[in-house]
């Protein structure tokens, strides 16, 4: 029972982070129907920028987080303007190829800028590494920081979509691009903001996760697969589904690692994707679409 409680607690804290990664994927997909395959590299860029501000420049953590998120936001704008805008009109395949190209470019830039400091960069924890005990449950303090911060970011996104004009424009475009265009909305600019917000969310996830893992140019791929699994499980068109999918994935991962074998943990996201595509093609909260004949 003690082990089960620990695995559940760890799974929930890890799952909240996966949900945050999945949110960035869902935000872009809802508006553009594109799975941004470079989303993991945006996560990596956020972590690297935070490392530069916090470790190298010695800035406090919160300003480092904000600067890293702002930097990821700018990278999202640049990639949309340079790599995606011209190919969006040519179909999904062209955009997917472009996202793969951006992925390799960002990894190459990371190796050039941060590679001289070693392949793996250690981000110091924000709080004491000593575990905290809640009854019979032991949990790392840094994991609680990630959980609380992820919930704050999710709440901020909810307010952004509900209260701001840009958030409402993005929702309208995601719901019906043609109707939004007829209403006078500039779809190209909204797509730019969508990619930028998705990148900012990825950057925030990178900053939050950096103290729990080593940073290296290829770290984004693993986290992208886990975020994609959470998005597919919850419903890749559903923002609440991304959160729920992330929590479920985190719990499933920890239970599999605890009761089966730790090596199974890296296989779980692929199994979840296969299960969801087979038995839940629209996810837990996805909307069933119409098939054109």
Characteristics:
two-stranded antiparallel ribbon; 11 helices; 293 residues; 2 strands; mainly alpha; globular
Helix content: over 70%
Mean pLDDT: 85
Rg, please?
Answer: 19 Å
Taking the sheet with the most strands, its summary is: 2 strands, antiparallel
With helices defined by DSSP (H or I, 4 residues minimum), what is the helix count?
Answer: 11
Low-confidence stretches are none
Shape: globular
Strand elements, count = 2
Termini separation comes to 53 Å
Percent of sequence in beta strands: under 5%
Strand order of the largest sheet: 1-2
> What is the structural class?
mainly alpha
Secondary-structure element pattern, one letter each: HHHHEEHHHHHHH
Tell me what the structure shows.
The protein is mainly alpha-helical and about 290 residues long. The chain has a domain at about 20-220. Helix content is about 70%, strand content about 5%. The chain is built from 11 helices and 2 strands. A two-stranded antiparallel sheet has the order 1-2. A hairpin with a 2-residue loop joins β1 (about 130-135) and β2. It starts with a helix and ends in a 14-residue tail after the last helix.
């Amino acid at each position: 029972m003690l082990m089960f409680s620990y695995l559940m607690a760890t799974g929930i804290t890890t799952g909240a982070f996966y949900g945050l990664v999945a949110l960035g994927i869902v935000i872009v997909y809802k508006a553009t129907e594109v799975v941004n395959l470079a989303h993991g590299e945006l996560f990596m860029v956020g972590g690297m920028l935070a490392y530069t501000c916090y470790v190298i420049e010695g800035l406090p953590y919160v300003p480092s987080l904000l600067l890293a998120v702002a930097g990821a936001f700018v990278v999202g704008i640049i990639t949309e303007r340079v790599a995606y805008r011209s190919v969006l009109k040519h179909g999904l395949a062209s955009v997917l190829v472009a996202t793969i190209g951006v992925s390799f470019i960002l990894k190459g830039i990371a190796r050039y800028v941060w590679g001289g400091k070693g392949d793996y960069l250690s981000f110091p924890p924000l709080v004491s590494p000593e575990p905290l005990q809640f009854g019979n449950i032991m949990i790392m303090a840094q994991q609680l920081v990630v959980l609380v911060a992820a919930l704050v970011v999710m709440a901020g996104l909810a307010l952004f979509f509900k209260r701001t004009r840009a958030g409402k424009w993005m929702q309208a475009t995601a719901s019906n691009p043609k109707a939004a265009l007829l209403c006078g909305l500039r779809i190209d600019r909204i797509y730019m903001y969508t990619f930028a917000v998705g990148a900012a969310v990825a950057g925030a996830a990178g900053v939050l996760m950096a103290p729990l893992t080593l940073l290296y140019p290829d770290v984004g791929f693993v986290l992208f697969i886990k975020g994609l699994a959470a998005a597919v499980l919850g419903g890749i068109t559903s923002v609440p589904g991304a959160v729920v999918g992330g929590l479920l994935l985190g719990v499933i991962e920890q239970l599999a690692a605890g009761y089966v074998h730790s090596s199974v943990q890296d296989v779980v996201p692929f199994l979840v994707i296969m299960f969801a595509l087979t038995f839940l093609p629209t996810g837990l909260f996805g909307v069933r679409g119409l098939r054109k004949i």
